[in-house]
Amino acid sequence: MDLKIFWTDFAKAELRKIFIYLKEHASNRVAKNENRKIVLATLRLRTQPEIGQIEPRLKNRTKEFRYLVHQKKIIYWVNTKKKQIEIIDVFDTQQYPDKIKKNQVKPIITTCSLIAKHFFEHTRITYP
Fold it and tell me: Residue 16's domain spans which residues?
């Protein structure tokens, strides 16, 4: 069963921060490639939603949060009612781990296709 991938506004903002940081400290090409890799890593969740491990720091929540690690920790949950994977955070694993508990987990949903379109169709990425 193919599930849809949706990104919360919070997760998109975190992805944007990663892009800006890498653009300023490495290069535009590095920033673009890293963000593309993060987005691509989430696409395999469509067919293998339980591939990620359960996030132990979020076990006390009502939803079962899981994560993938692709240089960054990608936190998500499977919304079976809506038949979608909701990406709620992209977390830098070099940060203090308990910060993950403080991050929002409010599913204000936007589609992954908008993010993917931005990365794959434009040669130049700019953020407001």
Answer: 4-92
pLDDT of 54-88, one tens digit each?
Answer: 999 898 889 999 999 988 999 999 999 999 999 99
Residue 25 belongs to a domain = yes
What whole-number distance in Å separates Cα of residue 86 and Cα of residue 115?
14
Q: Give the CATH number for residue 53.
A: 3.30.2310.20
CA dihedral 68, 29, 9, 77 (to 10 degrees): -10
Q: What are phi and psi of 12, to 5 degrees?
A: -60, -40
Query: What is the length of the chain?
Result: 128
121 lies in some domain? no
CA angle 62, 97, 21 (to 5 degrees): 110
Residue 63 lies in a domain: yes
The torsion region of residue 41 among left (phi > 0), alpha (psi -120 to 50) and beta comes to alpha
State percent of the chain over pLDDT 70: 72
Q: Is residue 103 part of a domain?
A: no
pTM: 0.73
Per-residue pLDDT reduced to its tens digit, 89-105: 998 776 555 555 555 44
